[in-house]
Every structure is written in structure tokens, then in C-alpha cells.
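User: Can you predict the 3D structure for this chain?
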Amino acid sequence: MKKEIKILGTGCPKCIKLAELAEQAATELGIEYELEKVTNLNDIISYGVMLTPALVVDGDVKFAGSVPSIDQLIDYIK
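Assistant: Here is the predicted structure, written as C-alpha cells:
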């Protein structure tokens, strides 16, 4: 089953870094995934997120407000 990964953020350096690390984590897991960057503030707020960057996996917000380590991301995406 393909994982749906979303990066919520306005395109700041931390948001870009999170997107890169999320792709790396998904690749290391060897899973099929689709990565989407959500930059619209109303869309971000609709997830209940007030701090960016944030990671959403299959519709669930996993964290917000920081860039976790690659190991943490692997755990979030699994």
C-alpha cells in the first residue's frame, strides 16, 4: 500500500529540509510513497497545525514545529 506523506509548511529552509529527509526515510524503508508539499496556510491550519514544518502520514499529523532525525522519521513513516 502506498504511503501518503505530506509536508506542511510555507517553503522555509526547515520545511525544505524536512521534505528531503522524509523522502530519504521513505526510500530507506523501501516503500511506495507519494510526497506532497502543502503550502497554503488555510490547508495547514485545517490539520490543526500551528507550527511548521509538520509531517502528515496517511492523514495523521505525526509532529509539528521541528525537523526530527532521520531515525525518528523512519519510525513516523513506518
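The longest helix spans residues 13-29. The domain at 3-77 is CATH 3.40.30.10 (Glutaredoxin).
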